Amino acid sequence: MGAVSCVGFGWKHVVFDFELCEQFDNLLNQKASPVTALRPVPSFQDESISLFESRAICRYVLEKYANRGNKRLYCTNPLQKASIEQWVEAEGQSFNPPSSALAFQLAFAPRMKLKQDMGVIKQSEEKLNKVLDVYEQRLGESRFLAGDEFTLADLSHLPNTQYLVSVTDKGEMFTKRKNVGRWWSEISGRDSWKKVVDLQKPQPPKST
Amino acid sequence: MAVLKLHGTPFSTAAMRALAALYEKELDFELVPVDMKAGQHKSEAFLALNPFGQVPAMEDGDLKLFESRAITGYIAHEYASKGTQLVSPDPKKMAILSVWMEVEAHQFDPHAGKLCFEHVFKKMFGMTTDPAVVEELEGKLGKVMDVYEARLTVSKYMSGDCFGLADLHHLPALHYLQGTSSKKLFDSRPHVCAWVADITARPAWGKVIALHKS
């Protein structure tokens, strides 16, 4: 089974769905390879292959283990897969930049004793509101982003939204919107996501 | 009547990305112009194709798609047997290709796209390039290019042994930046320089650029 290296802020991009894999080795391994110097986390090793970039890791794992666990995360039907990919790209291009900037400014900068940039906060909030307006309309037409089933497209949104809802005062951006609020409640309530969130809590020391 | 339609303008980097894939795969398609100056991309009809109001959008029969990299991915897989092979059937090679596709989208494009805006699109809109912004962006993109130089020292293409989507996705920004002072970022790194020359010389890419003249 693959080993995942994740360090600190990289938890933002730990999107492994425990519905797929029962366990990981060395989850808190702090190594980062030189190739990933630009953005060192997460990195992933599985047999002979070494990967970085969280969405590439997800795609590889979901393709390789297509017959394990939740089989509907990343459909084999090409038309449905195209629809999933469209919303994964929308997450990466439209949702991630403002949401990760907001999460950094509001959740991480204070912890790292860095000065917050009020201009970035205001701009990111405006951009994210426009994106969530699109999501509100979409989620009024469809239970999940790519259709009736929970897929990689929804999963990709979990980390940044988790930070915004649980650690900052911007959670209302999601919960005040009827359809987005319903969707967030549903996807964050999944057992698999709760297991990921639990990993962030201090782990009890292992007995020797 | 063409079954495949691409809605957009051939000057948009995202639309050019999708056009490159269509030409590489030698597919018949119709380019449906979107008049962005007139705000057509924010019209109700276009928002039905892309709720974010951005080009391009694609129709293939009943399938409607937006996001250029989802469009190129769909084209590459659905028409795998036609034209240039842009993805790999080998899962491990595909995974590596996917890594460098993500790098283009999240490490390269954020800086390269803004540089294109400063150098090229601001002038199109009658605005002035900000040299301080250019310098800052070149600093950031330079660090990315160092990683690319290392990658291209061990791999002929970003995608692997052969040209693929991870290379193709870079073409629009590379094309625009090659016409600006920022081209020094590529010229100064021998493997990057050779790679840029190789991929921008592809005949399919030439067809995309030819649309700028028509």
Describe the protein.
The complex is a heterodimer of chains A (about 210) and B (about 210). Chain A is an alpha+beta fold and about 210 residues long. Chain A has helices at about 55-65, 80-110, 120-140, 150-155, 160-165, 170-175, 180-190, 190-200, and strands at about 5, 25-30, 45, 50. A four-stranded mixed beta sheet of chain A has the order 2-1-3-4, covered by helices on one side. In chain A, strand 3 (about 45) and strand 4 form a beta hairpin. Residues about 1-40 of chain A have low confidence and may be disordered. Chain B has about 210 residues and is α+β, with helices and mostly antiparallel strands. Helices cover about 55% and strands about 10% of the residues of chain B. Chain B has ten helices and four strands; from the N terminus they run E-H-E-H-E-E-H-H-H-H-H-H-H-H. Chain B has a four-stranded mixed beta sheet with strand order 2-1-3-4, with helices on one face. The longest helix of chain B is centred in the middle third of the chain and has 34 residues, at about 90-125. Chains A and B meet through strand 4, helix 1, helix 2 and helix 3 of A and strand 4, helix 3, helix 4 and helix 5 of B.
Shape verdict of chain A = globular
Mean pLDDT over all positions of chain B: 96
- Can you count the helices of chain B? 10
Q: Structural class, judged by helices and strands of chain A?
A: alpha+beta
Helical residue percent of chain A?
40-55%
Terminal CA distance of chain B: 22 Å
- Largest sheet features of chain B: 4 strands, mixed
What's the mean pLDDT score of chain A? 81
Number of strands of chain A: 4
* Alpha carbon gyration radius of chain A: 17 Å
Going by helix content, strand content and strand pairing, the class of chain B is alpha+beta
- Which blocks of ≥5 consecutive residues of chain A have pLDDT under 50? 1-40
Oligomer: heterodimer
Shape by Cα distribution of chain B? globular
